[in-house]
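Below is one protein, fold included:
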Amino acid sequence: MANEVVKSQGSSLWKDAWHRLSNNKPALVSLGILVVILLACFVGPFLPFVKSSTTINLANAVAEPSVTHWFGTDQLGRDLFSRVLNGGQVSLLVGLVATGVAVIIGVIYGSISGYVGGMVDSVMMRFVDILFALPFLVLVILFALVVDEPSSEFTTWIIDSTGWPRDRVAPITTLIPLFIAIGAIGWLTIARIVRAQVLNVKKLEFVEAAISLGLSRPRILFRHILPNVIGPIIIYTTLAVPGIMLLESVLSFLGLGVKPPNSSWGILIKEGADRMEISPYLLLFPSLFFATTLFALNFLGDGLRDALDPKSSKD
């Protein structure tokens, strides 16, 4: 009688992670909500039935929600629904781009510190400790003020070089100081996380095997070590986006973030807070979009943390 050979199909980390994530209903619902919000903010303003967010109609100022204006109008008669969608573009872009800048800087800095070790690691981490001791919000404000003038010159240069209208160029280029300021200061936590992960991974056998083969340090670090710490990086990125969006809203609320006539959820919340006793819907709708996005990102981040945790038992 022939011996039966039982073949077992291998399972990768990402397949196991997706299996765990698919069983996490709050994370999946949050992912669906984020997709809907992203489509609404980046596709919605181009739909024909969505009104312009810049058209001023003082005769219809502070109108209550209706069939014509779903969320009502603001103090200048502009459609609040379209302003919320356009403000979402700015808030989400700031959250995603600034987080990307912070993650890139933090991953490179933390991985080099953890892999090289020794005196280099000590000096690099003491520098991080010094930056941690400084007031984060004050640093962001000062950094934004420093790069504000070069950003204005860059805007003028693009307009002169391409001939594009200012209303198309300025909404993007005026965000550059915010991207740089938040991203250049927000990398400290991810640097510590990556350093700790690299310190653990570089002691494993496959790293020793790569060293014995004579591979260069950069190749070992970026081709062998970093791919094995991508899970915590993804988790941190998902959880960092809400914090940076909240920081942008705080700066915009204080008048230090997005500049008028551009809008963000932070600016809309500020304008609504100034008139909440007279027109509460001016505060309600942007706050609802903002809070829903933050909750969805946090639930998704928690789900990814559980799914990518290598210590989780397989179902």
Q: What stands out?
A: The chain has one domain: 25-44+79-308. The chain has 13 helices and no strands.
